[in-house]
Amino acid sequence: MTETRTAVITGASSGIGKEAAKALAACGWHVIGQGRDAARSAAAEAEIRAVATGRVDMLSCDLSLLSDTARMADEIAALTPCIDVMLCNAGGMRQELVVTPEGNDASFAGNHLGHFLLVQQLMPQLRAAGHARVISTTSDGSFYCKRIDWDDLQLLHKWDSGASYCLVKLCNVLFTRELARRGAADGIVAHAFHPGVVGSNFTSHVPESTRTYMATLDAQMPEVAAQPLVWLATSAEAGASTGLYWNKGVSEAPNPIALDDEIAARLWAESEKLIAQAGF
């Protein structure tokens, strides 16, 4: 009898996260999904369950709140002793600066810091899998971030929607590189994944100028865009390497900043400080 594999998928209530959840659930995986919007999550859960041949759990969490993220991590740990795949997929762009009650930029926390904490909290379950994979959904917007200001890491003093988004997407790639290094001894594989332009609800919260620009681009259907993500989660080829940046299903060179091991290590250390300030 084949042992059931478990996947944790953030952003599973819509877009490529939902499609990846459906694909894995249809193959008998135990899928633990996360969504922020209750109504959208309930609808997605029904869709996933309709095709599932394995267990499905949908959890509610706002990843921009570290306290909420830690709560969900405890719930996930209670649901499974091991995690074979974690798809850190949730994210997006905001129109304006929102500072959370914990003092973080909601964009920085929702795209990077929440996932950083979630992986930290669930490291025992990832190690228990023996050869777990952590795939972070990023964007080619990461190439437009030319430097990291360590004195204003979250851009709280000079926030701009586009600059913030490009920064957090670069953070996704840097996090992947450092996780690949730190997790190698435990068999943890980490990759960053750019899905391309996807026809999803991504543009719901972006500035009008961004929405207008994206309307001129050819967008993929979410079920098509999710296919490389599922491949990264399941294929032997993707499991034989680690720390790479993937443009859809092709490995490419990332922003040169993301190849700097010192910057990757410092972002990890600064992220640890931020979650410690929140009590975790």
Q: Which helices and strands occur, and which strands form pairs?
A:
Elements: E1 6-9, H1 15-26, E2 30-35, H2 38-51, E3 56-60, H3 66-79, E4 85-88, H4 106-121, H5 123-129, E5 133-137, H6 161-183, E6 189-194, H7 208-214, H8 222-234, H9 236-239, E7 244-247, E8 250-252, H10 261-277
Helix pairs in contact: 1-2, 1-8, 3-4, 4-6, 6-10
What does it look like?
The protein is of the alpha/beta class and 280 residues long. The protein has one domain: NAD(P)-binding Rossmann-like Domain (Rossmann fold), CATH 3.40.50. Helix content is 45%, strand content 13%. The protein has ten helices and eight strands. An eight-stranded mixed β-sheet has the order 3-2-1-4-5-6-7-8, sandwiched between helices. Helix 1 (15-26) packs parallel to helix 2, helix 4 (106-121) runs parallel beside helix 6 (161-183) and helix 6 crosses helix 10 (261-277). It is globular, with a radius of gyration of 17 Å. It starts with 5 loop residues before the first strand and ends with a helix.
Keywords, please?
280 residues; alpha/beta; Rossmann fold
Summarize the structure.
This protein has 280 residues and is an alpha/beta fold. The chain contains 10 helices and 8 strands. The chain has helices spanning 15-26, 38-51, 66-79, 106-121, 123-129, 161-183, 208-214, 222-234, 236-239, 261-277; strands at 6-9, 30-35, 56-60, 85-88, 133-137, 189-194, 244-247, 250-252.
